[in-house]
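Summary of Year 1 activities. Much of the first year was spent building the evaluation harness for sequence design. The harness presents a backbone, in tokenized form, and records the residue chosen at every position. We chose the following record to illustrate the format because it has been used consistently in internal testing since the harness was completed.
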């Protein structure tokens, strides 16, 4: 019994397919199947139900996978700890951002991060909040950039900056004639929002609820850029974070953007990572750069 056997088992649990699990672990399918059979023989229990075109873990197999993930996470932390002891600001670090933050934050901060951390290989990913937190807890990524608050449960968090909401309207909308728009001015308007799963949707709904605004339920967008185009098409208005309407995203024919008077509704953006991480030095430095760049 060794760690590789557990890697094979976890890969099979993730993919539900011997061939895909073999690809994921860079071995042949017969090798993976044989090693799992040896693991079953060693443990004296059946881990996998093998049926034509269908693979399913047994109940005890599912329980062992939970513990195997922990073992693999700890082994990765041991390797990272040894490497970081030489240079904690070198090596690879996996960072994921939610879709309503990544495209607007990264152009502002990446040059500064590279300058501050030239030996750090930053690998970037994009996930919605819940999948991001799941991958973070399972050790697939090291650092997440999300809208706060989030359920911690073994995680640490740090607020990086605040971002005000703005109102995006068609150019010919009556409210576009105003310099600023109050939350109560939105009453009676058709508001377009993102689909379920985006935390920005929940935050926008919270703002809208203050004015009794109704959502346009016929349309739900998959991204902020889709929302922007729906507004231009005259299907309604929407709320956009301020960095999504600043240059180079500000110029959009047919779109008017108006701000709320102070104190404007805001969202808080922060970093989240595992309490057990061995990459705390690099994470702290990335947080310092982002917070310094995005501060007023």
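For this record, the design step produced the sequence shown next.
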């Amino acid at each position: 019994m060794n760690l590789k056997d557990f890697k094979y088992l976890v890969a099979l649990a993730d993919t539900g397919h011997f061939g895909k699990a073999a690809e994921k672990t860079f071995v042949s399918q017969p090798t993976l199947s044989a090693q799992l059979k040896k693991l079953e023989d060693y443990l004296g229990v059946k881990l996998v139900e093998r049926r034509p075109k269908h693979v399913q873990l047994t109940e005890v197999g599912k329980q062992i996978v939970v513990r195997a993930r922990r073992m693999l996470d700890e082994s990765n932390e041991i390797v990272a700890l040894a490497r970081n002891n030489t240079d904690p600001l070198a090596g690879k670090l996996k960072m994921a951002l939610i879709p309503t933050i990544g495209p607007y934050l990264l152009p502002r901060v990446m040059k500064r991060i590279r300058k501050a951390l030239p030996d750090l290989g930053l690998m970037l990913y994009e996930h919605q909040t819940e999948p991001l937190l799941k991958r973070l807890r399972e050790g697939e990524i090291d650092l997440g950039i999300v809208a706060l608050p989030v359920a911690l449960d073994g995680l640490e968090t740090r607020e990086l900056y605040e971002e005000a909401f703005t109102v995006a309207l068609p150019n010919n909308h009556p409210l576009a004639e105003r310099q600023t728009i109050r939350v109560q001015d939105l009453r009676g308007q058709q508001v377009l929002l993102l689909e379920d799963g985006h935390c920005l949707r929940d935050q926008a709904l919270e703002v809208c609820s203050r004015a009794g605004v109704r959502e346009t339920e016929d349309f739900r967008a998959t991204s902020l850029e889709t929302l922007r185009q729906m507004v231009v098409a005259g299907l309604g208005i929407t709320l956009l974070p301020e960095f999504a309407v600043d240059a180079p995203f500000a110029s959009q024919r047919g779109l008017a953007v108006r701000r709320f008077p102070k104190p404007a509704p805001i969202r808080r953006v922060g970093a989240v990572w595992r309490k057990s991480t061995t990459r705390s030095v690099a994470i702290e430095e990335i947080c310092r750069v982002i917070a310094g760049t995005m501060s007023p």
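The chain has nine helices and eleven strands. Quantitative recovery figures across the full test set are reported in Table 2.
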